[in-house]
Amino acid sequence: MKKAAVRIFSSLTLVVAATVSGCASPPSRFYTLTAAAQPDGAPPAPYAVVVDGVSVPATVDRPQLVVQKGPNRVAIDEFNRWAAPLGSSIARAVAENLVVVLGTPRVATGPLSASFDPAYHVAIDIQRFESAPGEASTLDAVWVVRGVTATPVSGRSSQREPVAGDGYEAIAAAHSRAIGKLSREIAAAIRAEAAR
Predict the structure, then answer these.
(1) What residue numbers bound the domain in which 103 lies?
(2) Which of 27, 95, 117, 124 is the most exposed place for a label (fewest CB within 10 A)?
(3) β-strand 107-109 against 29-31: which pairing, if any?
(4) Contact predicate 76/64, CB 8 Å
(5) Residue 21 in domain
(6) What pLDDT is attached to residue 113?
(7) Does residue 79 form part of some domain?
(8) Phi, psi of 104 (to 5 degrees)
(9) Does 9 map to a domain?
(10) Which segments constitute the ABC-type transport auxiliary lipoprotein component domain (predicted)?
(11) How much is the pTM?
């Protein structure tokens, strides 16, 4: 009787172990956007710049990466996620790019201390942020640069960057390059305003 009970208990233990291991989900992976702009060769900017905020479309305003599966279909990947909210990640990447392009460390995002007195404020509305695995990242944005005394300058940027490689890391890198090009356009507008 004892041997039969031990066999039943062993069998149940194996079934429970198999069930638990079958329920384990794959580990989540987290991605960031990085600065991809290069210096433009102009003298360092003597003024401060603030990236006030970035709005993103509701379809991609979530932790999970959203990828295009067709013209009217997307997939939300539960296990591949942005490491921070997408709007704040784009703002940070733009600020880091502006540091490089403008040649000044005086670029910031978010709330500032009273001692930081920016000459220019940047606001960005991302209207399209699409990720097509193995194909391209697409970024359409409208942006506004407001100077302390000048009339606001606005612009529109459309960038399409090929995804070089497979996987989500390649998608994040392509978006980083597109944001780098957007940042160069914003930096050019700031320099043009400063020269007036």
Answers:
(1) 31-195
(2) 27
(3) unpaired
(4) yes
(5) no
(6) 53
(7) yes
(8) -135, 140
(9) no
(10) 31-187
(11) 0.85
* Residue 20 counted as domain residue: no
| CA 78 and chain centroid, separation | 17
* CATH number of 56's domain: 3.40.50.10610
Q: By the 8 A CB rule, do 138 and 110 touch?
A: no
Of the candidates 157, 182, 164, 154, the one whose C-alpha atom is nearest the C-alpha of residue 93 is 182
Strand order in the sheet with 49-55: 107-109, 49-55, 120-132, 136-147, 153-162
Contact (CB, 8 A) for 120 and 129: no
Distances (CA, A) of 119 to 3, 83, 122, 141, 145: 83, 30, 10, 22, 10
| Residue that is written with structure tokens 């407001």 in the block | 146
How many domains is the chain partitioned into structurally?
1
What is the SS3 assignment for 176? helix
pLDDT at residue 65 tops 70? yes
Cα four-point dihedral sign 76, 82, 84, 88: negative
| Beta strand spans in 1-135 (E) | 29-31, 49-55, 64-70, 73-82, 107-109, 120-132
In tens, the pLDDT along 4-37 reads: 554 555 555 544 454 444 556 789 999 999 999 9
